[in-house]
Amino acid sequence: MNRLILIAILTLFVATLTLNTPAQQINFDTSDAPAPRGMALPALQVSLNAPVDGILSEVLIEDGQTVKAGQPLARMDDGIQKATVEAARLRASAEARLIQARLEREDAELSLQRITRAFEQDAAQDWEVRRAQLRFDVTKAQIEGVSESMRIAKAELELEQARLDRFTLTAPWDGYIQRVAVDPGATLARSDTILRMVSMHKLEAEIYVPARLQPQLKAGQTYQLTALEPVNRQLSATLTFADRMIDPGSSTFRCVFAIDNTEGKLPAGFAVMLRWPQD
Fold first, then answer.
1. Alpha carbon of 32 to those of 173, 213, 220, 249, 275: distances in Å?
2. Tens digit of pLDDT for each residue in 39-94?
3. Nearest by Cα to 199 from 220, 226, 172
4. Are strands 193-210 and 37-49 parallel, antiparallel or unpaired?
5. CATH of region 48-74+170-196
6. Cα dist from 177 to 73, 149, 257, whole Å
């Protein structure tokens, strides 16, 4: 019994001592922490797939070639679609029916005028006038029908031409061809990649920065990044995005820096560091 009382007294003493001892404040010294890093990559880079299912007829560019926006890059086999477009063009340009309909309307109009004058001179019956008028109205309706058919044919031509244009893969913007993935003659689905294209005019570096710097980094401001090999110099970069959400696991937040490369002197894929404080 005495032993139990002694254990209880010791436990109470230890608990009281713990509560009365002030907690130690932990200071994180980040002065020696490594500078946050990222990779400078093209801001625009895309894999271009086959525009339609079918056979790749020709590739019009090669690896490393500089291209302009809208420039044809590759073409799928479009023989059947070309024939469809030509048939639609013939239908849209067939004006013989319209000419015939106009001539019939002129003839009906002349007939109506002649019979009307004869009726006024009591040389024609009322039913003859009505029949001539009916024939004239029918020819007018025929012209409207033919004109409407031609408008539909022209719309169908535009649709088929647009479908034909889809058989040609064009550059979405100015850039250069990083890699051609397939050769002419390959059978492709729309999910198959033909080539990869990048633009080197602007590079972007995504860097995860310590949370303590969030109040000091402002979007739209220019900062200095240290470029590593093979560039090995300071680069001016504009902070285009600073995430307001801090990652609780790493205590960092995402920043995106834009590096102007209009002259194309910088490569892509080199590492950069954000040193703080800035020099």
1. 44, 15, 28, 20, 11
2. 999 999 999 999 999 999 999 999 999 999 999 999 999 999 999 999 999 888 87
3. 172
4. antiparallel
5. 2.40.50.100
6. 9, 45, 24
Question: pLDDT confidence of 202, banded at 50, 70, 90?
Answer: very high
Q: Read off the DSSP letter of residue 55.
A: E
* Chain centroid to CA 20: 64
* Cα 183 to Cα 164: distance, rounded to the nearest angstrom: 21
DSSP summary character for residue 133: H
Q: Could you tell me the residue ranges of all domains in the chain?
A: 48-74+170-196, 80-165
Q: What are phi and psi of 143, to 5 degrees?
A: -65, -45
pLDDT reading at 160 higher than 70:
yes
- pLDDT of amino acid 122: 84
Closest among 172, 109, 180, 112 to 143, alpha carbons compared = 109
According to DSSP, the β-strands at 66-67 and 193-210 are unpaired
Residue whose token pair is 């040193």 = 275
Task: Report DSSP state, residue 26.
Answer: P
Q: Percent of the chain, pLDDT > 70?
A: 88
Contact between 229 and 39 (Cβ < 8 Å): no
Tokens 């479009």 found at: 78
**d(C-alpha 123, C-alpha 115), whole Å:** 8
What confidence score (pLDDT) does residue 98 get? 81
